[in-house]
Design brief:
By secondary structure, this protein is of the alpha+beta class. It has three helices and six strands, in the order βααβββββα.
Length: about 140
């Protein structure tokens, strides 16, 4: 498994709900941002994947909330891609305040869709590796 990759975000007021907490949908957006930043750090960009006729797809997402997050909080989002045999892979993410307090976990199951065949590719790790400039960053 690769070393976790970290992105820091600052929660903005407009990302909060009526109680002043980070909106549940925004957790998903921040998690998605961290996944793409990890891919970008590995030298993988959406345009290169689309040129190959493929695109990552989300198959399942689970959020576990641990502590409240409010506007102004700085949150570190750790992200690790976990590959095994098969057409899907997992992405395990933790969100912590700058002081290390766990605020949420996001678990994602994804795959890579062949845009012509409309089927998942058989080896998503190899598909990512084929376009990565720095595959080790993503554990490829």
């Amino acid at each position: 498994m690769a070393k976790p990759f970290t992105v820091r975000v600052t929660v903005r007021v407009y990302e909060t709900d009526a109680q002043g907490h980070l909106n549940g949908n925004v957790y998903l957006q921040h998690a998605e941002h961290a996944r793409w930043e990890l891919l970008r750090a590995a030298g993988i960009n959406q345009g290169d994947l689309l040129k190959k006729g493929v695109s990552p797809v989300n198959l399942e997402t689970t959020i576990r909330y641990h502590r409240e997050v409010v506007a102004g909080d700085e949150v570190d989002i750790n992200c690790v891609f976990v590959f095994s045999e098969g057409k899907s892979f997992r992405v395990e993410q933790t969100m912590t305040r700058a002081d290390g307090t766990l605020v949420a976990e996001v678990f994602n199951v994804g795959g890579i869709l062949d845009l012509d065949a409309r089927r998942l590719v058989s080896d998503p790790r190899e598909c990512f590796r084929s376009v990565a400039a720095n595959p080790a960053v993503a554990g490829l």
